């Protein structure tokens, strides 16, 4: 059975990549390519939609897709906890739909985030430095926010990380008590460092994206998981068995 796909944000770098992958896959059919100014009704011939637009328009377009019975893969940054909570309420009322939100489609990045959450219980000093190309319009990145949130969850009853002088602007933006420092530079595609400090030692978990081809496997994995997903699923890690306990959402 062929799944019909609409790509929203098809004129951007990620949108062009997603469109090419869908065209080349025998189990998918590309039926619509939209940009953020297109009539959203153009996606209505599809079974699923991929949102790769911008934070300013993503929520409106995802809401439209969900309200019209489409399943949606979201690769756009800017989905805060409040936005996700509102989407969960919307999807709960429409059980035939589902949304998978992926802050980063790179398998290496997902593994780096998972390992960081595992390590977070053993260090009280934790900070994140993320770097992206100069054209990225949001900061901190969705990946760094997701990493910080998972670190906060992993620490559970341990308490917040030790982050002195947070009243100073140069100390970064705190997410789940973890300071995040964002760089936007020419010559960089994407990089994240999670730095752990302990007595007499530091540990750095770093991931570098050197080519957009690193996103290809994750896009297709998430797209193929979408027809079997339910509710709102956040993170590519939820679709993978990372061997850290539990089972991937796609297998449930």
TrEMBL record:
Keywords for this protein: Amino-acid biosynthesis, Cytoplasm, Diaminopimelate biosynthesis, Lysine biosynthesis, NAD, NADP, Oxidoreductase
* All copies of domain Dihydrodipicolinate reductase N-terminal, residue ranges: 4-105
Q: State the EC number(s).
A: 1.17.1.8
| Chief location category | cytoplasm
Where does the Dihydrodipicolinate reductase C-terminal domain lie? 114-240
Location comes to: Cytoplasm
Q: Which residues bind NADP(+)?
A: 37
Source species of the chain: Luethyella okanaganae
Q: In its keyword annotation, does this UniProt entry include Amino-acid biosynthesis?
A: yes
Q: So, what pathway does this thing act in? A: Amino-acid biosynthesis; L-lysine biosynthesis via DAP pathway; (S)-tetrahydrodipicolinate from L-aspartate: step 4/4
Name the gene for this chain.
dapB
- Hey, which family's this protein in? Belongs to the DapB family.
The molecular function GO annotations come to: 4-hydroxy-tetrahydrodipicolinate reductase
PANTHER family for this protein: 4-HYDROXY-TETRAHYDRODIPICOLINATE REDUCTASE 1, CHLOROPLASTIC-RELATED, DIHYDRODIPICOLINATE REDUCTASE
Q: Which Pfam families match?
A: DapB_C, DapB_N
Name of the featured protein: 4-hydroxy-tetrahydrodipicolinate reductase
Q: Which residues form the active site?
A: 132, 136
User: Which proteins does it associate with, and in what oligomeric form?
Assistant: Homotetramer.
Instruction: Decide whether keyword Oxidoreductase is in the record.
Output: yes
Which reaction is catalysed here?
(S)-2,3,4,5-tetrahydrodipicolinate + NADP(+) + H2O = (2S,4S)-4-hydroxy-2,3,4,5-tetrahydrodipicolinate + NADPH + H(+); (S)-2,3,4,5-tetrahydrodipicolinate + NAD(+) + H2O = (2S,4S)-4-hydroxy-2,3,4,5-tetrahydrodipicolinate + NADH + H(+)
Function comment:
Catalyzes the conversion of 4-hydroxy-tetrahydrodipicolinate (HTPA) to tetrahydrodipicolinate.
Query: Which residues does the record give as (S)-2,3,4,5-tetrahydrodipicolinate binding sites?
Result: 133, 142-143
